[in-house]
Every structure is written in C-alpha cells, then in structure tokens.
Design goal:
- The complex is a heterodimer of chains A (242) and B (355).
- By secondary structure, chain A is an alpha/beta fold.
- Chain A has helices at residues 42-50, 71-76, 92-101, 108-118, 131-144, 161-178, 189-195, 213-220, 225-234, 237-240; strands at 2-13, 16-27, 31-35, 57-62, 66-67, 77-80, 149-153, 181-186, 198-203, 206-212.
- Chain A has one domain: P-loop containing nucleotide triphosphate hydrolases (Rossmann fold).
- In chain A, helix 3 packs parallel to helix 5, helix 4 packs antiparallel against helix 5 (131-144) and helix 5 packs parallel to helix 6 (161-178).
- Chain A is globular.
- Mean pLDDT of chain A is 90; it is low at 237-242.
- Chain B has two domains: 24-244 and 322-352, no CATH class; 247-320, no CATH class.
- Chain B is 58% helix and 7% strand.
- Chain B has a four-stranded antiparallel beta sheet.
- The chains are: A alpha/beta (242), B alpha+beta (355).
- At the A-B interface, helix 2, strand 6, helix 3, helix 4 and helix 5 of A face helix 1 and helix 5 of B.
C-alpha cells in the first residue's frame, strides 16, 4: 500500500505554480523525507496530501486510494503543521480534550503518560510552554490519534538542537515500534540523515528525485543522504539560492 | 526517551460514519467560553439596569392608573410624573440607554462571530482544526450553529425584558391618555424578543463571514460594525415601513390619542380628487385660507381642520399598532433567512478554501 500517491499533481496560486506535474508513490512503513530549498513546494505538497488545499491539476490519494481530505483520509492521518499551531490560550488538558473529541480514536492514557515523561503539566496553558514543549505537545496529540500516516511540516525548524533530537527520537520510536508511516519535510539535512529511509527531492515545484535512500545512494554512488541531496541541488544552483 | 505505548492499529474503515455533532459542544465551549461568559455578564448587567428602571416605570404607571378621581390635580401630577419617567428614563426618547442598547446586537455579534474563523486563520490553528477526524465544514457548521443558538437564546430573554419595560407605554386599554404617546414601532423596535436575537444573529453571521474573508479578527470586527450600521440604517429608514402595505385614511384624527400608537408613514392633501401638496401645507395656502385661525386654536392637528372646511382632504398612510407583532416576525424572519444564507456562504468558503 502507498501512503501517498500523486499523479500529475499541480497547485497554482494566482499565476504561479507552487507545484507542477508531481507524480510519486510513497510506500507504507517508511520515514519519508521531503527535501528542498525554501519555496520548493514542500508545504504545498503536504497541504494537498492532508487535504488542507485542493489540487489545481492532477490528483492525490492517501492511505491506499482515499481522496485526500475525505473523512476516511482525515481519520487515518495526523498532521503537525509548520510552527506547530496550538490554541495558545487553552490548557494542555483542553488541547487533549479537543483532539480526543474531534477524532474517532484517541489514546488518552498514552497522551498523559508522554506529557508526564516530558515534564509538561496538563494545567499549563499551551502558549506558556517552551517552543520545544509546544512541538512535543503537538506531536503527542498527533501520535495519540494512532494515525497510520504521520505528516510533519518542518517539525524541527524552530527548535534548538536538544529539542530537535528529542522530537525526532519520538517520531522514530513511533515509526519503528508501531509501524506508523511518516512523511516529513525539512530543509535541515543533517536531521534527516538519521531518520529518513525514503527521500523526495523537490525544487521549484517539481520532483527531482524520489526513492528509497539505500537505492538512491547506491545508484548515484554517494556516501550519505546529505551528500546526495546537496549534489542534486547544486546541479540547479539558481534554485538553491532562491 | 520513553518508548511510546501506542496500541496496535485497528483497520480503519473506508467510509467511516461521521462523528456525532454533539461532540462539538465541549469543543465550542472550551474555545469560546470567554466570549460566551462575556456576553452573559454584559447582558446580565444591562438586564439589572433595565429591570431597575422598569420597576420604577411600572410603579409610576400603577400609581397613575389607580388614582381617583382622574381629573384631580394629584392624579394629573402622577400622570405627568409617569410620562416624565417614560421619556426621560434611559430607554425613553431622551435617554442615552436606548442608543447604548441599539449597538448591543452589533457588538455581541461582532465580538462573538469574528473570532470563530478569523482567529483560526490568523494564528494558523485552522491547520490543526481542519485536519482532525471531525471534518472541517462540519466543524465550522457545528460551531456557528451552537454559538448562534446560545446567542439567540440569551438575547431573546433580554428582548423579553425590554418588552416588559415598555408594557405600561403600550397598554392600549389604559384610561390615561398621556400613556398613549409612544408608538411600539419607534421605541427600540429592533430590541424586542423576536428582533433582538434576529439582529444579533445577523451581526454574528456577518462577522463570521467577514472573518472568513478578511482572516483577521480586529478588521473583521470593524467591517462587521460598518456593514451592520449600514444595514440597520437602511432597514429603519427605507425597508421596515414597506413590510406590509400601509393603510390609508382621510381621518385627520389619526394623530390624536388612541391613534398615535400607529406609525405614520406619509401624509398628503388633495382637493377635488387632485393632489394638492405633501406633508405640511405651504405657507402661502395657510396665509390665504387660514390666516384668521387664532394661534391658540392651532391644535395638534395643525391647519388640517381649517383646510378641510375649504374642501381639502388630508390623507395619511400608516401602519396600525396591531401590526407590531407581524412586523416583528417579518423582520425576524428575513434576518434569520439572511443569517442562514451567510452561514451557508461561510461553509462554502471553508470547504473550498485553499490553505
């Protein structure tokens, strides 16, 4: 089963195509990294996959053929948006209540156990938490929904190195222990090295490269994901500096 | 790092049954409790004020009605005292409270309605809310309906209190002529138990739509107040009088006690079946025909009786006081229909909006 399938997918804002003729299949059970410079179309692709926006061209399905944004798709996908938006005036417990109430499945005891491990008091307002704690709260809420696909948009961009490490450790633990497929976007290549086993390279709204990391490294004769990505992005220098 | 303890994944079904609507009650309460408590506190404080003023008005009315003999100076004083409190008290024609109450539907609706979508769009939390299993258009519809119903109930209760306040003035069978002065159409027509919730709902849904379009809370509130002011003015000045075809009478006594509870729409005069003039008679005509009428004989009817003797017929179009409730329901009805349309527009935008 493919967790995301796009064919000829395109998204236009006004006269600019943010994403063009995107065709890809991301298999289940992977931690897939969506890599590319700022403005490459990463967020656009993720928004289409989670159903926040609708395609201008082509189609995208998730979790084995479900229309992105359909009730069945929303049911199985947990999305943590860029800058992890939370209701800042609500308490952590209220955020848990809201997420639990708005979803079919929610593992409340898991959520509270994890927050206790993280030292996040349930009565504290979400807005009073540190950036790292807010990211961890958003991730906890997403994982407690027991999704089949976890989509993360630039999850660590705003975090300090320790918070980044903790965040990624949580993602990896969930992915390896319970078979949650992960799709995450990032322009921080070093973070992806440890976690990603599937790569989608995006630049100027088009997919440049997609495949399992091991296969790609073997095919292109590169030692690391970072080297591979940089080489590929350097081949189109104008796009990297954008 | 503690390993997460997610239980095994149950097979999710392809077309899951939608989550029950009632789940949104707790969500809506948690997100909008400050707005809802604020509305209740505001209306509660105003209710105490209306109730206090209303009690003294009712007491003055009861004293005036119970007074015998009616023509004694003591009784006349009581009537004068009641009329004074009816016009001077905060909801009377000279009171500032009436103006304050007029803006309440706009304020309540704007402050409760604008954040529903604008705050989500402004802070980015729509990306959280709209990717949950409940589904985004159902989420938006449930919130708008729940908040709308609560606001309507609170403002309807307040509107009933306003109607109670006006009871002495619209007591049509009263034996005290002075009590007839107010037309029910004039005194805060839009703040009764039908129109107050209807106007509040309209403001609320205008604000929700403005929030969806503008995506910023404060500009959405400002836009709502502007649109509402324009709408309220247009309705009061142009639309309301046409809800039902006005009645027309040639009885010049329409403005006398007993008739003044009617709402006069227009007045014109004919002579020999031909249109002569609209409104007040021109000075030239009065000087020509009625210059001999002594100043102290010009009653509330003006020169109409004099002109009638010269073959002029004064016509008055008016809405009788008995149409008060039909007018309430007509205004409430179309405002409710407008609100439903606005909610539909919001839902349509929520469904199609690209993130």
């Amino acid at each position: 089963m493919n967790v995301v399938e796009a064919s000829g997918l395109g998204k236009r804002y006004g006269r600019t195509w943010a994403l063009r003729e995107c065709t890809l299949e991301i298999p289940a059970g992977r931690v897939a990294a969506l890599v590319g410079p700022n403005g490459a179309g990463k967020t656009t692709l993720l928004n289409l996959a989670v159903g926040l926006s609708t395609p201008s061209a082509g189609a995208v399905t998730v979790l084995g053929g479900r229309r992105a944004g359909s009730p069945a798709a929303l049911d199985g996908i947990a999305f943590v948006a860029q800058d992890t938006p939370l209701y800042k005036t609500l308490s952590v417990a209220d955020m848990i209540y809201i997420t639990r109430t708005l979803n079919r499945r929610f593992d409340k005891s898991y959520a509270y156990a994890r927050l206790e491990d993280l030292g996040i008091p349930p009565k504290r307002r979400a807005g009073k938490l540190s950036g790292g704690q807010q990211a961890q709260l958003a991730l906890t809420l997403a994982l407690a929904r027991r999704p089949r696909l976890l989509v993360l948009d630039e999850p660590v961009a705003m975090l300090d190195p320790i918070a980044r490490h903790d965040f990624m450790a949580t993602v990896l633990a969930a992915a390896s222990a319970y078979g949650v497929s992960v799709l995450l976007s990032s322009h921080v290549l070093t973070e992806l090295e440890r976690v990603a086993d599937y790569l989608i390279l995006l630049s100027r709204g088009q997919v440049r490269l997609a495949g399992a990391v091991d296969d790609l490294l073997a095919t292109h004769g590169k030692a690391s994901l970072e080297e591979l990505a940089l080489t590929y992005l350097r081949e189109t220098p104008a796009e990297v500096t954008r | 790092m503690t390993a997460p303890t997610i239980p095994a994944q149950p097979g999710a079904d392809l077309s899951p049954r939608p989550l029950p609507w009632r789940r949104m009650a707790g969500v809506t309460w948690r997100q909008h409790r400050y707005a809802l408590v604020g509305v209740v506190v505001l209306l509660g404080a105003l209710a105490v004020w209306v109730w206090t003023a209303g009690t003294s008005l009712h007491n003055a009315y009861a004293a005036a009605v119970a007074c015998h003999p009616v023509n004694s100076s003591a009784c006349v004083n009581l009537v004068v005292s009641f009329n004074g409190s009816a016009t001077d008290k905060f909801m009377g024609s000279k009171g500032a409270g009436g103006v304050l109450l007029q803006v309440m539907p706009a304020l309540i609706g704007a402050f409760a309605g604008a954040p529903v979508l604008a705050r989500e769009l402004e802070t980015g939390t729509f990306r959280f809310a709209w990717t949950q299993g409940f589904g985004r258009w159902r989420w938006a519809l449930a919130k708008l309906v729940l908040l709308g119903v609560v606001l309507a109930a609170a403002t309807a209760a307040f509107g009933a209190l306003v109607s109670w306040y006006f009871q002495p003035e619209s007591g049509a069978n009263s034996q005290i002529p002075g009590l007839y002065e107010a037309s029910p159409f004039g005194n805060l027509f839009s703040l009764r138990e039908v129109t107050f919730p209807a106007w509040t709902l309209a403001a609320f849904t205008i604000a929700a739509l403005a929030g969806m379009l503008i995506r910023r809370v404060v500009p959405a509130i400002v836009a709502t107040l502007a649109v509402y002011a324009g709408l309220a003015f247009a309705v009061a000045a142009f639309l309301r009088k046409h809800y039902l075809t006005p009645l027309v009478t040639s009885n010049i006594n329409i403005s006398l006690p007993g008739g003044s509870t009617a709402w006069t729409i227009g007045q014109w005069t004919t002579k020999g079946g031909r249109f002569a003039f609209a409104g007040n008679p021109p000075d030239s005509l009065v000087n020509q025909l009625c210059s001999n009428v002594p100043q102290d004989k010009i009653g509330p009817l003006g020169f109409a009786p004099c002109l009638a003797q010269h073959g002029y017929t004064q016509w008055t179009s008016y809405q009788p006081a008995t149409r008060f409730w039909p007018f309430q329901w007509i205004e409430g009805g179309w405002l409710l229909a407008l609100s439903v349309l606005l909610v539909a527009a919001v839902i349509w935008l929520v469904r199609r909006r690209a993130a």
